[in-house]
């Protein structure tokens, strides 16, 4: 791989993928809708080609596609826009990849797996999504499968890390940054996974460099499971954070959903905060190698440093 494009380069995982590609001295095109945000994040780095545009517009998507070996599809939109936009975007990406013989490495989540079974989920776990968003993710898979494009799917748990602002932990970290009373979404006692975005970026780029990884799904677990209480304690230790932390439960988010579309869409995914889906990385480690696993203590420290602008 000599040159790659990252869709959704201004998002948490997209930023991490761009930075890791640059570290590997791979030429990279950073695509995102918000030109100002692209400039803020990557404008200082002449190794990154900035490409602002709307992926719903096929012409804007193909402007910088020449000589691209792999497209990393890390682009997402607010929950309330999933039905209107995600299938159109995936169709455009797949068609262009087919036309220009470009490989696809797709950043995916765990929604299509539906509910867990109390064990670590492998790639052959039946996909029986019971939520609207899980069914949408499954339809996106079908768009890829029904094409001739060479693609791989990397399934990740919820993100945290520098720039990962569309995640449940973001609200907590943002309050800590401001030294304000904080909120934690979901049951603080339940242990679940949060993947550090630089780890996820390393894993999917490694997959993209393995020819045999294409045509397959790959689960990328976090370092380990961790409870909200443990996360809060790590933050209190490292940041000397002493403010109160309140738990935000389904009832409150449902109420807020009466006024905010995106908050309404969060409600159906809260089952993951009570009955988490935990991924198995056995397939990756058997066929690809050791998974990147940054300890939560270090990952949280680096994330909070980012929030503080350090």
UniProtKB/TrEMBL annotation:
InterPro entries: Epimerase_deHydtase (IPR001509), NAD(P)-bd_dom_sf (IPR036291), NAD(P)-dependent_oxidoreduct (IPR051783). Residues 5-220 form the NAD-dependent epimerase/dehydratase domain. Transmembrane segments: none annotated. Pfam families: Epimerase. GO terms for cellular component: cytoplasm. One of its GO terms (molecular function) is aldehyde dehydrogenase (NAD+) activity. This is SDR family NAD(P)-dependent oxidoreductase. It comes from Gracilibacillus thailandensis.
């Amino acid at each position: 791989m000599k040159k790659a494009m990252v869709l959704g380069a201004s998002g948490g995982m997209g930023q991490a993928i761009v930075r890791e590609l640059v570290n590997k001295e791979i030429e990279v095109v950073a695509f995102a809708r918000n030109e100002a945000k692209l400039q803020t994040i990557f404008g200082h780095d002449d190794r990154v080609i900035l490409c602002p545009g709307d992926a719903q517009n096929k012409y804007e998507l193909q402007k910088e596609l020449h000589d691209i070996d792999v497209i990393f599809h890390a682009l997402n939109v607010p929950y309330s826009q999933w039905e209107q936009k995600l299938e159109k975007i995936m169709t455009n990406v797949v068609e262009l990849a087919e036309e220009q013989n470009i490989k696809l490495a797709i950043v995916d989540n765990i929604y299509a797996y539906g509910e867990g079974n109390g064990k670590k989920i492998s790639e052959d776990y039946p996909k029986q999504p019971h939520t609207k968003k899980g069914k949408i993710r499954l339809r996106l898979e079908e768009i890829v499968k029904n094409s001739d494009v060479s693609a791989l799917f990397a399934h990740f748990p919820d993100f945290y890390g520098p720039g990962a602002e569309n995640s449940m932990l973001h609200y907590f970290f943002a309050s800590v940054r401001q030294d304000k009373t904080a909120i934690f979404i979901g049951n603080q006692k339940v242990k679940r996974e949060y993947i550090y975005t630089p780890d996820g970026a390393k894993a999917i780029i490694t997959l993209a460099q393995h020819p045999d990884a294409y045509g397959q799904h790959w689960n990328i677990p976090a370092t380990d499971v961790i409870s909200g209480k443990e996360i809060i304690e790590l933050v209190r230790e490292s940041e000397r954070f002493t403010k109160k932390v309140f738990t935000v439960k389904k009832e409150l988010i449902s109420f807020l959903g009466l006024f905010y579309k995106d908050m309404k869409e969060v409600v159906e995914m809260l089952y993951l905060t009570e009955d988490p889906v935990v991924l198995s990385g056995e397939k990756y480690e058997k066929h690809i190698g050791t998974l990147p696993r940054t300890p939560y203590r270090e990952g949280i420290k680096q994330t909070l440093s980012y929030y503080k602008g350090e």
